[in-house]
């Protein structure tokens, strides 16, 4: 498996990462954001959504679990989900997640609570961690992402 480690020194670096991801997104993609509390999952999700054209406030979906963004407010349909409060992966099915995902991008915070998405070819898994100089993003692309990762520094 290919793995990239990126240093995110500040919020501007996180926004730049979000913009790079947003530029490469296609319907059916999953961006799975993992990591502990307070490491920047929602900040990165907000950066992606803003880079897709959304100009409004992006609430954390911690309580609603799922927030939906549709064109023309964004470049393509998007579902932002926070699965932190799920007790069992079957609850994601009960929420109708597959219906929301049809033809849309899914940004999934706490993806492991919903059973994970890393096995999907269109999944971009990102583990966020605190680091001495801000945050570190460990990026693992599914095979569908391999030709689209021009935003990864060489």
Report on this structure:
This protein is an alpha/beta fold. The chain has a single domain (4-145), classed as P-loop containing nucleotide triphosphate hydrolases (Rossmann fold, 3-Layer(aba) Sandwich). Helix content is 23%, strand content 27%. A hairpin with an 8-residue loop joins strand 3 (66-69) and strand 4 (78-82). The longest helix has 14 residues, at 11-24.
In short:
By secondary structure, the protein is an alpha/beta fold.
How are the secondary structure elements laid out?
Blueprint: E1 4-8, H1 11-24, E2 30-34, H2 41-51, E3 66-69, E4 78-82, H3 90-94, H4 97-101, E5 105-109, E6 123-131, E7 134-141
Parallel strand pairs: 2-5, 2-6, 4-5
Antiparallel strand pairs: 1-7, 3-4, 6-7
Helix pairs in contact: 1-2
Query: Helix and strand string, N-terminal first?
Result: EHEHEEHHEEE
The name of the CATH superfamily reads: P-loop containing nucleotide triphosphate hydrolases
User: Uncertain regions: pLDDT < 50 for 5+ in a row?
Assistant: none
Q: Which structural category fits the helices and strands?
A: alpha/beta
* Number of DSSP helical runs: 4
Computed over alpha carbons, the radius of gyration is 14 Å
Q: What's the count of strands? A: 7
Keywords, please?
alpha/beta, 154 residues, 7-stranded mixed beta sheet, globular, Rossmann fold, single chain, 4 helices
């Amino acid at each position: 498996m290919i793995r990239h480690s990126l240093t995110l020194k500040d919020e501007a670096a996180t926004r730049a990462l979000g913009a790079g991801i947003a530029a490469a997104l296609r319907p059916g993609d999953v961006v799975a954001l993992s990591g502990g509390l307070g490491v920047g999952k929602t900040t990165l999700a907000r950066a992606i959504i803003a880079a897709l054209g959304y100009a409004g406030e992006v609430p954390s979906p911690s309580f609603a679990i799922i927030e939906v963004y549709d064109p023309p407010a964004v470049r393509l349909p998007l579902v932002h989900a926070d699965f932190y409060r799920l007790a069992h992966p079957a609850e994601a099915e009960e929420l109708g997640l597959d219906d929301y995902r049809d033809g849309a991008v899914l940004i999934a915070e706490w993806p492991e609570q919903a059973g994970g998405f890393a096995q999907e070819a269109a999944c971009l898994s990102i583990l966020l961690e605190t680091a001495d100089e801000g945050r570190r993003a460990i990026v693992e692309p599914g095979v569908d992402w391999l030709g689209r990762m021009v935003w990864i520094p060489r």
